[in-house]
Specification:
Number of helices: 7
Largest sheet: 2 strands, antiparallel
Number of strands: 2
Shape: extended
Radius of gyration: 26 Å
Helix content: 40-55%
Strand order of the largest sheet: 1-2
Structural class: mainly alpha
Distance between the termini: 46 Å
Length: 167
């Protein structure tokens, strides 16, 4: 737009460039230079390199002491979080058809939650028992063989960058 002269003024050019760059959340990797009739940008190689070094890594923190929970157990718990989310989704959606019931008495609320959890427990055990009939156990050998705590695979760029820094 600047080259076609349809966008003029440093403030208007800056606003337009900011809108585009924020759309992709990549502003930290670019240096912008605007004037009344020009627009230039440069990619910050050092910030891209720092970001690539972190590619494939994540940190899981726990408030539990090391004596109570090992790092591997914490990672396993985090990776099984999707099962917990799936269970709650199953309880509240069409799988169990347990609709929200509005209770105001504490005893009734606890009872309602107990019934929801009991229904999910029974459903889960039935699905486990019926898995051969439902063809849900086809990949069990592979599932048992892979290490759930194995480190994530890094991208080729991050691996190359890490090797250059150490070697």
């Amino acid at each position: 737009m600047v080259q076609r002269s349809t966008l003029k003024g440093a403030d208007k050019i800056g606003l337009r460039a900011g809108r585009v760059i924020n759309q992709y959340k990549m502003a930290k990797h670019f240096r912008l230079d605007t004037s009344e009739a020009t627009f230039r940008f440069a990619i910050g190689a050092e910030s891209v390199s720092r970001e690539a070094d972190l590619d494939g890594l994540y940190v899981i923190r726990s408030s539990l002491k090391k004596e109570k929970r090992t790092a591997d157990d914490t990672v396993l718990d985090y990776k099984s979080l999707s099962q917990v989310e799936r269970a709650f989704r199953s309880i509240k959606t069409t799988n169990l058809e347990v609709r929200p019931i509005y209770h105001y008495d504490e005893k009734r609320v606890r009872t309602h939650l107990f019934i929801c959890m009991l229904a999910y427990y029974v459903t889960w055990h039935m699905m486990e028992a019926w898995s051969p009939l439902l063809f849900a156990d086809e990949a069990q050998e592979e599932k048992g063989a892979r290490d759930p705590v194995a480190p994530a695979k890094r991208s080729p760029h991050a691996e190359k960058s890490a090797q250059q820094k150490t070697g």
